[in-house]
Amino acid sequence: MAGTAPIGGSIQHVTVANQLYNVAADADATMSLGGFSNEVQPNGNGTARIIKMRVPWSLTGVALSVDDDAANQEALQKIADGNEYVPVTIRMASGVTYQGTGTITDNIERSTQSATVTVSFSGQGSLSQQ
Fold it and tell me: In the chain, where do the E strands start and end?
């Protein structure tokens, strides 16, 4: 059966609070759309019930290119220091774009050699494909 093949690869770019960040070509981030996680728990009579736990969307371990002159790392830190969710858009290698509302989680760690910061994002609701 002919069809298109799944496309993997580095994320092309991430837009955070309307500021575009290119992603390192060798970055291997992990993404979860959010929604529900399910657990099955048994009943005494052999039947089982489903326990649903809502989970937020997440994008972890993404290496964003940063420019000192543009104060990119400072802009990201300001978001992490803030108390509000911001718009986050993720453009995949396939050209598909996902959008959500979230914030930066974990530490913003910069590699001075590669001029990248490795960050993670998480947010309310689910990521939606645009």
Answer: 13-16, 19-22, 30-32, 35-42, 48-55, 57-65, 86-91, 97-111, 116-129
